[in-house]
Amino acid sequence: MNAYDVYVISPYLAMAGAAILVIIFDLALPRRAGGLLPYLAFMLLAGPFVLSLYQFYDLGLAANLVREGTTAESSILEGSLSVDRFALFFNFLVTGSAALVVLASTEYVKLMPRFRGEYFGLLLFSATGMMLLAAATELITIYVALELTSLPIAALAAFLMSGRSSEAGMKFLIIGAISSAVLLYGMALVFGFTGSTELSDISAAVGHAGGDIAFGNYALLIGLVLLVAGFGFKISAAPFQMWVPDVYEGAPTPVVAFLSVASKAAGFAVLFRVLFTGFFDVSLDWAVLIAALAAASMTIGNAVAIAQSNIRRLFGYSTIAHAGYLLVGVAAAVSSGGSLPDVPVFASIGLDSVLFYLVAYTAANLTAFFAIAAIGERVGSDRISDYAGLFSRSPALAITLALALIALIGVPPTGIFIAKLYVFTAAVDSGLAWLAIVGVVNSAVSAYYYIRIIRTMFLQQASVSPGAPPSRNPAPWAALGVAAAVLVFLGVAPGFVMEAAGAAVSALGV
Amino acid sequence: MLFQDIVFWLLSVVAVGCALGVVLIRDLFRAALLLVAVFIAVGGFFVLLNAEFLAVVQVLIYAGAIAVLIIFAVMLTRDVQQGNPPNRLQIPAGVLSALLLAALIVVAIDTHWSFLPDEDRQSVELVQTGAVSTIPAESLERAGVSDAAAQEAVEKAGLADLLIGQYVLPFEAVSVLLLAALIGALALVRPSPSTGSEGAGASRPGVSGTDAD
Amino acid sequence: MSPEFNGLLTATVFLPAVGAVLLLLLRGNRVIRGAAVAIAVADLVLALFVFALFERGADAARFQFVDQFAWIPDVGLKASYLLAVDGLSAPLVALTGLLGLSAVLASWRVSTRVKEYFFWLLLLQTAVMGVFTALDLLLFFLFWELELVPMYMLISIWGTGRKEYSAMKFLIFTILGSAFMLVAIVAVFLTPGVGTFNLIELSATGGVLASAATLLPLSWLFWLFFVGFAVKLPTWPLHTWLPDAHTDAPTAASVMLAGVLLKMGGYGLLRVNVGLFPEQSWEFAWVLVALGVISVLYGAVVTIRQTDLKRLIAYSSVSHMGLVLLGIGSVGVAGGTLTATGLSGAAMQLFTHGTITGLLFLAVGLVYEKAHTRYIPDLGGLAGRMPFVAAAMLIAGLASLGLPGLSGFVSELLVFLGAYRAYDWPTVLAVLGIVLAAGYILWMMERTFFGARRERFADITDASLVEAAPLALMVICIIGIGVYPALLTDMFDTALEPMVRAINGG
Amino acid sequence: MVNEALVWAIFLLPLGSFVLIALVIRPFLNRWPLLAALSTIAALTASTVLAAITLRSVIVHHGAVFLSWDWLSYGGATIQMGLLVDPLTAVMLVVVTSVSLLIQIYSVGYMDGDPGLARYFAYMSLFTASMLGLTLSSNIVQLYAFWELVGVSSYLLIGFWHDRPSAAAAAKKAFIVTRIGDVGFLIAILYLFFKADDFAAVGLNAFHIPDIWQAAQPVAAGAAVLGGAALTWMALGIFAGAAGKSGQFPLHAWLPDAMEGPTPVSALIHAATMVAAGVFLVARFFPVFQQSVEAMAVVALIGAFTALMAATMGLVMNDIKRVMAYSTVSQLGYMMAALGLGAYHAAIFHLVTHAVFKALLFLGAGSVNHASGTFDMTYMGGLRKYMPATYILVMIASLSLIGIIPLAGFWSKDEILLAAFDGNAGFADWINIVTFVGLIAGVVFTAFYTVRMVMLTFYGEFKGGVDQENADLHPQPAASAQPHADAGDDAHDEEGGHHGGVHLAESPLVMVAPMAVLGLGAVVIGYVINPQWINFLGVPIHWVTGFVADGLHVATGGEGHAKLPDFDWQMAGISTAAAVAGALAGLAVYGLRRDPVREPLRILGPLYVLLSQKYYIDVLYENLIVRRSFYRVFAALANWLDRRLVDGVVDLVGWFFRNIGSAVARLQSGQVQAYGTAIALGSLLIILGFLLAS
Amino acid sequence: MSFEAFMIVAAVLFCIGLYGSLARRNVLAVLMSIELMFNAVNVTLVAMAKYLAPAGLQESISTALTGQVFAVFVITVAAAEIALGLGIVFAMYRTNESVDLTEASQLRH
Questions:
Q1: Which of residues 22-61 of E touch A (CB under 8 A)?
Q2: Model confidence band, residue B211 (pLDDT cutoffs 50, 70, 90)
Q3: Which of C401, C416, C435 shows the shortest C-beta gap to D190?
Q4: What is the DSSP letter of D405?
Q5: From A467-476, D83-92, D178-187, the region with the lowest mean pLDDT
Q6: Phi, psi of D96 (to 5 degrees)
Q7: Residue C428 to residue D187, Cβ atoms within 8 A
Q8: Angstroms from C100 CA to nearest CA on chain D
Q9: Which residues contact B134 (CB under 8 A, 6 or more apart)?
């Protein structure tokens, strides 16, 4: 391990360091200054951000900062880490959403008498794991990073010390543990068959595993299915999704926001790495699986969301549905349309679209959850029926939430419209027109429950007495505003992010 | 080999039997003790599999630390008397586990594993058993690792090297993970000073979600 | 892609939206109303400019007032901001301006949440204008979807009856329909060698889609688009959202809904289905005709049973929009002998039905406002109390049943003339629809406006000046077009002739 | 040549009057409704003069066609708005303008005091303009347009007293029934456009009426552009339109109901002009009809049948206007029959004379109503004493209708009967015989009901007029014949007319004078304009018939003059005998009856009921077909299907989605281990799926 | 004592753990069952390290240790997980006065 290695992993170090610093400051600072903590965390996030930015420019035309060799700019991390545009793309996404969540938490943490430092610390620890997840190219690193992502969130989910909160934490932990055991078994099988934990070696071994069943042999088949199950938990795809609504309902709102966007994005990042760099040679087999999961997730998520009366629960199902849309893009990245029918062709538009979708979804969901948090503060309830007449009481919040909801339907001019369009374009392009149709029909169905919320806010008369006066703290408003602005910006001028997504995908080097 | 086989089967019986006990008996305390037995048996497996270091770690961390932690937890929560009843998912869980087991056995048997070539077997064994110790030169010779470079490679190969070398990143990450887990556990376990058992957030229904369904 | 920027269309399209946002800054209902009217008038003026300045000569460009610049760069999705009008859309733009103003005027008495109301109304106008002028499929779709939210809001907040149900139904139907359309749009874009959403290029190259290996069979694309437009039109059996939405919407929303939103469907069919898929249009014309005839007759028969004035007009819209399909179905004529008659009739029907139904809804709105009921058996003898409204209603009704000298006749005649050449017996059946139209229109007039005067309507007054203005506007349009239809048909034909050539050539 | 601008003016003057009244007088000057009358009368006076000039010009220079502007143009067929001025048009112009003018003048008196006077004259102007436009049209689409406008004016005028439910219903009925016929007309137009390319191939325009004539003519080489069965169908389509307008069976049901309109309206529209438009239409396309024996036969048979059937229904009506209405239907049947028989000239001649004497009859009825306040003849009687002028004029018109020499009706009807006697050479014999017998029988019945009407109205004792009628009706309020009437809701105290009360006196001069003019016409117009034996007062023999027949002759490409049959004494004798027989029977029955109140024809028993129920045709149409079958069953079924089935499916899908959501949400039991089980199950299912697939 | 035997024993342990984690009500029993699963994976990994040929053995003999390294990390992560798990158990116990997972179902539907 030399200085260059340290440079390579500096964003992660900076993120973890930020987490530790926040905790230390919390212990060191006088109690009165506790309110400064979120701003401190926010500023500390500049570290990983700036370092990522530097790495981005340092990368130049190269594909990867982690290089083999013996020069000063080679790394022992070669094989287990890939600091490329793909990883950096997620660095920015994770840091950005973490920053917004931190800002949005300023008001929320006042509810906690203690452990604010721990709260932010855990958030940043989790973010470290997410960033690492996007860069990891080796199973052990992936596994550790995955746990680093999940465990702090489990703790955060239980952070409110209420019955529901700890139940949420418990459910997340147990399902997380079971699925990580399943994932581990899958990794073990893959390792056993391929003899390596590095994706590049795995890829080489998989390519030679000819056989007459899917994926060539049972070890790979079951190993990969178990892997997908483990990642499926992370990205909340059906049928590994059932924890989602419960946790969304019970956990603190900013944590849910973070969980729903960054964690999901990281899950997708690692899914891409594993599937596309490790298992692309058998992609025609797993693409079918992914497509099926996509259809199931969309349909189940939307169908059940219709029946929900709690907004956070509803968003739990909504996020499942969106996982489905995202998976459509993943499945669409594999095309059999090449000259040889049995040889898969990589269609980068699929992953481009998913990356763009992730950004748009991040903006939309953050907007929604920030608004929900602020509304929860005011109304004192998460029941949709208690949102009645919100428009007359807090028009700004109602409008922003409505914007997010409209975006989530996929109505222009919001980012998700472009994203969905992009994803379905990719699907049609890869011969998955049926999946695109399932997707668009689902989008249409989803309008029902999203619009229902808007209707409640705008059309119905208030049934509960007006709650607390609006907060004067500017930070949550800033977070909300930024998220909403990004959401609209992506709809109006999606070009920049699309290009970035394209560059990131090309870095996967499939 | 016969001796090792006998040990293996003994350990297997112990491990599986105790594991069944862990998941079947109602007395949680005894279950925890059986779990320790399973851990130790697994440690025995590690010894059979040339992983002495892991065996030690297994006994120390699992049988020592984790099991004790669990037993403490069992004692601290007052539910010991109520025991550990099964839930309604017994049958589906049993069926699914059995099916999964069948699948995994098929995997174990029916996969064309690329077994270690015989010529490498001994050097690999040396590397594995010597992972945390120096290897006598004659052992190397006996294993057929004769040229200097190969000998050095086998000599150098060790878990520690790997952990701070090739696997330094997960190593560091896992340390951060431990830290995070500890901080999280600590924050959760320490009672809040102001409101006692119930967090302050719980008084704000919209935030904590304690309002009725 | 050459950037061009005329600006007139951009102004026309976005003026209402900008105005809507500015409205939010104003206070006082009177001020807001006044501002809304001013915006609507200004937009109408712009729309009329578009209509009037459109060059009609034989050598004039087909697409005029082009506003174009790159919108989404070429990364998998290459889209441009492209607004332009041709002979098909220019009249519809004018129609939108006209009905927009009428809708604003018809909302004079809205008293709850006035600011929001006009905000949505004006936003709706932008969306519809956008649909008619956007010539980039993606932009077109964007406007298409943009229209949903304002309409949803207008129905569900200011509506009556089961307004939320109706609004939701409207929304879900449209979104479902447009979902199919979206898939088709994407598939068109992805066709190798196409790679553009630009409708001008797509239709100019005409045969490109036919010759290229599309991702989906062309017939699929045709039907995917068709479903999207057919929901909007609406075509039997996708029509059931319409009566509910119309019945429960406030007057202005009904006017916009019937007057211009339905036209989006017909416009789409002409622009996209006929424009891009000439061969499929020809091949499947018989289906369009079948659906059209069913819509005409079924709509008319069901209309006769209606007892709610608005519902009655809504079902009559189903019937009349069936004529649009019938007109489009005229492309099924034996190879090479197609004339623009039927298509022109369909386009004309879009315009005329817009004015006629707009007028009907305006009049019904006044009736409802003053008599507080739309239940036909409760009405009667209103002609004596509100002669102006009765006269307007009668003119609209007569136009709707195809009385010569009024605009409805021209479009119906053209549709029938065109369709008869391709499908004689179905057309004869559809002609029976106009007898039924006479039945329900006159029966409605008889039971609503004629008959003995009633005590409880004794203090009803005729329309005031503000209320009368939009009615008069519509009446002028109806009579003007009826007497001098070439005003529109000449324009339509410039846009339709290339389509006709494409079909005849193919 | 006629001056195009002048001809346009004939049409545009009344139209201008309409616009003036509708846009200026009615909204702003409604306090002086006589301005509207003035405007209308002035416009019509000018039009009449211009029409006369045009007629003269046509006599001298023959016809002319003016094509003014292209209205629409598609696929080789241009719809050109233009003027077609041929002898037929010229005659019609004069008839329409002059009768209309007289009736407008009459209306000033009759409608005096009505609050809707300005509206009335606006409608009247609109009607006259439309009617003139109809006769002038050179293009079939243009013709259709005015055809419909005439219909709508009629609708407006029948429903003029729109607060009277029966009037509103009658207006609607008139419009819808005529529109059913118009569908045939429209389809004929569609067919023409279908053939437009064939027309264009020989340099013709499919919509231009003279071109249509030409296209229908057989050509030496090959088939005509229009020909064969298609031509028959097209002709029948046109005839359907004509039958609707002219009240021919089976579309006659609306015309008697149309008498709900003000009486001058009935006189102008439903007696003299508009209903004759059907005859005009067939005449207009006579060159087409001529090419199809089948079509001609249908026209003849329907005409004869209608002539007879309507006459029988006229026998038993008590409402004087309804008697006249059936009489009109009957007389129109004569004209149609004449056309079917090929006697083009006779039909037009009868159209002209009928316009005069029937208008006079209606005006007389109006005058009678003016005095008695009612139209129900059972409440009249003895009016001869109170209104001698009216009596004399009505007598003239009645005798003319019966066909008593030398009144106008005689001459024209005689020509028709002569044509029927001669028959159409193309027809099977039975058709000629049936037609002739029907027409002769019609003459008998016509004479009978005419005499009955005169007897009931002018002879005997006065029976109390509207006052007595109201007294009789009082116990059972306004039992209206119309289905949609809100019985009892109607505040109107008079049933038959709008003039309250009885005042037994002669009508004012403004009413009598136009009647007198028409009376003069009814006397002289038959012989003076169409002398039978020698040139009379400078008018040549068979002048009118020759004039119009020549027009047709030229139109079909003939040279010289058309050949017309001479006056036939034998035929005149037969027809007079039939008329006198009928009249004498009437006199016998009504002059010698003992009970002045009881209707003598009741002795016919069931036949009387059948007749007074109009052969139950209205019942069949309105109750059985429209209400019972269509509205209550068919439309109700469609409506039910729409709500339950089509919409039901939609709601079902929505319900399904909402509930499937709830059902799946039930699975979300809150048991964390159930979630884990789902993961295990899902993984296993996926594995299973892969294994099964491979 | 073959590779397959180890694999099968490990699979049996894994499935017993899975069954336990799904079918027991007490959260501590569930955590214990999860530990069983991790142990099973470890046995698998180490057995693979002993019997199977690692990729790149010829370049670096230390690849023979990959399985063991993996197991080390699994043990560590498991320790972290159990620590946090117990923390959450206590939090839950404090608020719900129960460690019964079946009773922890306020969040549902």
A1: 22, 27, 30-31, 34, 37-38, 40-41, 44-45, 48, 52-57
A2: very low
A3: C416
A4: T
A5: A467-476
A6: -65, -50
A7: yes
A8: 26
A9: B155
One digit per residue, pLDDT tens: chain C, 506 residues? 456 788 888 888 899 989 888 888 888 888 888 888 899 999 999 999 888 888 877 777 788 888 888 777 665 567 788 888 888 888 999 999 989 898 888 888 888 888 888 888 999 999 999 999 988 888 888 888 888 888 888 888 888 888 888 888 888 888 888 888 888 887 787 776 677 787 777 776 555 565 555 666 778 888 889 998 998 888 888 888 888 888 888 888 888 888 888 899 999 998 888 888 888 888 888 899 999 999 999 888 888 888 888 889 988 999 999 999 999 888 888 777 788 888 888 999 999 999 999 999 988 888 888 888 888 888 888 888 888 888 899 899 999 888 888 888 888 888 988 888 888 888 888 988 888 888 888 888 888 888 777 777 777 888 788 888 888 888 998 999 888 888 888 888 888 888 888 777 75
Strand D77-85, strand C77-85: pairing: unpaired
Q: Global pTM?
A: 0.80
Least confident of B24-28, B190-194, D55-59, E97-101: B190-194
- Please tell me the predicted confidence (pLDDT) of residue B19: 92
Of all residues in chain A, the one with the smallest CA distance to D672 is A171
Cβ pair C77:A425 closer than 8 A: yes
Interface of A with D in 268-307 (CB under 8 A): 285, 288-289, 292, 300, 303-307
Tally helices (H) and strands (E) across chain A: 22, 2
Tell which residue, D60, D62, D59, D46, has the closest CA to residue D10.
D46
CB proximity A306 to C under 8 Å: no
3 state DSSP class of C71: strand
pLDDT at D293: 86
* Residue A108 in contact with partner chain B when CB distance is under 8 A: yes
d(CA C121, CA C102): 11
- In whole angstroms, how far apart are CA A363 and each of A96, A370, C75, C414? 10, 10, 21, 52
B99/chain A closest Cα distance in angstroms: 13
- Write b or e for each residue in A223-256: b if 16 or more Cβ atoms lie within 10 A of its Cβ, otherwise e: bbbbbbbbbbbbbbbbbbbbbbbbbbbbbbbbbb
Extract the tokens encoding D658. 């909402």
Å from D105 to nearest chain C CA? 26
- In this complex, do D673 and B89 lie within 8 Å of one another by their Cβ atoms? yes
Please name the amino acid found at residue B126.
Answer: L
What sign for the dihedral angle of Cα D387, D388, D390, D391?
positive
**Which of E30, E41, E87 has its CB closest to that of A185?**
E41
**Would you call D681 and B103 a contact, using CB atoms and an 8 Å cutoff?**
no
**Nearest neighbour of D681 by CB, restricted to B87, B96, B103:** B96
Of A215, A225, A305, the CB nearest to D683: A225
The percent helix, strand, coil of chain A (3-state, each to 5) is 75, 0, 20
Output the six-digit token pair for C220. 């699929």
Q: Please list, in sequence order, all residues whose beta carbon lies within 8 angstroms of the beta carbon of residue A312, skipping any fewer than 6 positions away.
A: A248, A249, A253, A256, A372, A382, B209
ipTM of the complex: 0.83
Token duo for residue D497: 């007319």
Judge: D683–A182 Cβ closer than 8 Å, yes or no.
yes
What secondary structure letter does DSSP report for B134?
Answer: -
D165: chain C residues, CB-CB within 8 Å: 450-452
Q: Which of D222, D224, D163, D219 is nearest to D198 (CA)?
A: D224
Contact A307 D661 (CB under 8 A): yes
Note the Cα A119 to chain centre separation in Å: 19
